[in-house]
Amino acid sequence: MVSPTRISAFASTGREAVHEQAARWHMRTLQDSSDHTQRELEGWLAEDDAHFEAWLAANQIWGDIAPAIALAPPAASEKPRNRSFWRAAVPTAAIAAAALFGTGLYIDPFTPTYATGIGEQRVAKLDDGTNIILNTNSMLKTRFKESRRNVDLLRGEVLFNVAHDMSRPFVVRTPGGDVAAIGTSFVVRLEEARVEVILLSGLVDVRQNGNGAPRVVSLQPGERLRSARATQNVDRPEIETVTAWRKGEIILDETSLVDAVTEINRYMKTPIVLRSSSAAQRRISGIVRIDDIGMFVDMVADLYHLDVARSDNAIVLSGEAIQQLR
User: Fold this and answer.
1) The CATH number of 111-239 is which of 3.40.47.10, 3.40.50.970, 3.40.630.30, 2.60.120.1440?
2) pTM listed for this prediction
3) Does CATH number 3.30.200.20 belong to domain 248-318?
4) What is residue 60's predicted lDDT score, i.e. its pLDDT?
């Protein structure tokens, strides 16, 4: 947690210093929304109009504060009277900002940011002409320079169609390693400590971080590299299956029910909970529409005679699995 003394120790002069303080306040409030923290934040905001403006800018960058909140700053002698206003201004996106320091991926929060929420997908074009498709619950930031195009993938899954530029390598950075390309099409998926790279066309080099000297793996089109901590393997999956999300689909091919639920939950704000050990390892195949996952729940319940209990917090599948004869 960023301590108050550490925050106040930063210089209060200069635009960059003020924005750095705002960014650190942003991270601290993600970790601690206590009354004590809110009072300290309010005090910092009241010190200078520039503090208020930097705070609004930081929150608007993350897309978590409504434009209507961008009001005139309070006078230096006043403190905001409605503390709930400031709580409303604290971002709620699960960006795990504190963890960015530990992964070495912390960068200036005022760089271009692209993100999706749970169940959302987004198509965008980067400043260099690269086209990207963000899958559910994904976030990346770009840091383009004259000699290099860096992208920090903070979470989720993104397909990159990289604009060709021999003079400026395109590098996707993750906690597990870097993916370097020039003009290529590939997918990078980041989940906790696991990184997955699928090469669709062209060539990429994956530089894996870890103990000892970094290892570089060169992929060929159609290959997938999966790495988790000290382990990694390269295989050739069915590309249409592993990239079906581009068409709004999840393809299940002899997939265990427990794994199917795990994959489908990536798109669910209300997760499916499987409470049936007898059904967990049953194999299922089919196509699930991301915009109609309710049909999957009903189908599984009907197929295995499972009970369904829906609430605001979860969709629970339970009972002893008994497969019907068709």
Assistant:
1) 2.60.120.1440
2) 0.67
3) no
4) 54
